[in-house]
Design goal:
The chain is of the alpha/beta class. Helix content is 44%, strand content 18%. Helix 6 (163-175) packs across helix 11. It is globular and about 65 Å long.
Length: 323
């Protein structure tokens, strides 16, 4: 290569770096859209709106939450994946972003290829609760009771392929028990039938289960994550209670479309981290039984890959099919 050509290449590279830096420094110069693939009012939406308000204040631009429910979160994910990678479209998701790969023969997005993870915002556990008519008081007793009655005990979930469904299928596989799955259209009707004694048990968000546990309408056996509940620290994890290695904790985190410039990824990560350190934000999230995390993009990317492998295996083993 001639010295003249080399100098041109160096000059062009410097120009491109300067342009990228100038773009990143100007970002954001207009409102940002944050896509939530679920209806307003749920846990993911609450987290998104809490984070959006404070991150917008840090970035000096409003972040507008755009709820796009439907298709088991596929509609929102596709919209985000096909948006311009300029930092003005953000995507908030739970593990459904990877779970959908096992539930659909063909998806209009790829969780690994089409997204850049920014940060895991929170982690939370579901609570394993049973109707008092089921004569068990621990995970060990549940396993023994179910082994003596294969196919006779039913459990509710928020729907086929939901985290509450797959968490129970993981428990079944690890414990070697046969429980009958009764899918509902959401956790609210599932909980109603559990309270009515029409089903025997379910995994449900701790924040909605605890009032029923305190009133004696339900009995709590354990939590599904790797750490104990703040509101009920005497309650063991499922792993502690008899299934070592069990973990079906749920996360919520921030993504952007693939090819978003690293400088913008870094800005969004910094804003996420600072927001999660704010006392009022932490108080609100902890009040929802969610543990603030604030991982790096690399750590979050590894979690996404690990969950993809884990849940695809569970889906295949349980032969999960959508309605």
């Amino acid at each position: 290569m001639s010295s003249r050509r080399f100098r041109k290449i160096v000059a062009f590279s410097a120009l491109m770096c300067s342009a990228t830096l100038a773009w990143a420094q100007a970002y954001p110069s207009k409102p940002i859209r944050m896509i939530v693939p679920l209806a307003a009012g749920g846990g993911t939406d609450i987290v998104a709106r809490t984070m959006a308000q404070k991150m917008g204040e840090l970035l000096l631009q409003p972040i507008v939450v755009d709820n796009r429910p439907g298709g088991g979160t596929v509609i929102g994910a596709e919209l985000a994946a096909k948006s311009a990678p300029d930092g003005y479209t953000l995507y908030v998701s739970s593990p459904t972003i990877v779970i959908n790969h096992g539930l659909h023969a063909k998806l209009p997005y790829d969780a690994i290829r089409d997204f850049v993870p920014i940060s895991q915002w929170v982690s939370f556990s579901n609570m394993l609760v049973v109707h008092p008519s089921l004569p068990v008081h621990s995970v060990g007793e549940l396993i023994s009771h179910a082994k003596a009655r294969p196919g006779q005990i039913n459990y509710a979930s928020a729907g086929n392929g939901s985290t509450t469904h797959l968490g129970m299928e993981l428990l079944k596989a690890m414990a070697g028990i046969d429980l009958v799955h009764l899918p509902y259209k959401g956790s609210t009707p599932a909980m109603a039938d559990l309270l009515g004694g029409r089903v025997s048990l379910m995994l449900d968000a701790a924040v909605t289960s605890m009032p029923h546990v305190k009133s004696g309408k339900l009995r709590a056996l354990a939590v599904s994550g790797t750490t104990r509940s703040r509101v009920n620290p005497d309650l063991p994890t499922i792993a502690e209670a008899g299934l070592p290695g069990y973990d079906s904790s749920v996360w919520i985190g921030l993504f952007v479309p693939a090819a978003t410039p690293k400088a913008i990824v870094d800005q969004l990560h910094a804003a996420s981290s600072k927001t999660l350190q704010m006392p009022d934000v932490r108080e609100r999230l902890l009040g929802q039984e969610m543990e603030p995390v604030g991982s790096s993009p690399e750590q979050f990317a590894q979690l996404v890959r690990n969950d993809l492998a884990k849940w695809l295996k569970v889906i295949k083993t349980a032969n999960v099919r959508l309605d």
